[in-house]
Target: TetR/AcrR family transcriptional regulator
Amino acid sequence: MNDSLTFLEEPEDTREEILKATYEAFCEHGYSGITIQRISDKFPKSKSLLYHHYDGKDDLLLEFLEFMLDQTEEQLPLQTGDGADVHIELVVDAMFSSGSMVDNVNFSRAMVELRAQAAHDEQYREYFSRTDRFTSKHVEHIIRSGIEQGVFQNVDPSETAALFQVMFVGTTTQQVTSNESIFEDCRAEFERYVETCLIDSKEE
Model:
């Protein structure tokens, strides 16, 4: 979804310049290594501006994450011109691709590291809860549309969306935390689930 992150190419104001610098430092150093100084190294203006707007790295990271999610929500409409069966194939492709919110594996690594902070930090927990709700809502809408279109079986949209959401988190975590490649087998089994438990194969 690189098109949704135009601020990375052409930041429009100081805020977007700060967010771009945060993104670059976050990808390079991860959560454990990012500091205000390292963000400042990527920022074309005075370091004092960072402290003027933000109390510290976590305050800045939370602002950055909210900005990214807001852009994604705005540019990922629930309605689609394709059938729900085609749309769900795109979702599965995205689930097992090496990309994530942006086409940068370093960003995916840093996000998995940051998600682990949510185990002890309520602000990060609330952020990731919001992203999970957004993803589930989007998939649930696809499922409901597919049932209405007659291309999906009469499954529970909420339960099915929950399964997809857990798979999203699990595949991303596996990709960046293990050298063991199990995705070919995992994808084959998940696609079998989609074909047998979701897709309506009744002949017309």
User: Anything to note?
Assistant: The two ends are 36 Å apart (CA to CA). The domain at 79-204 is CATH 1.10.357.10 (Tetracycline Repressor; domain 2).
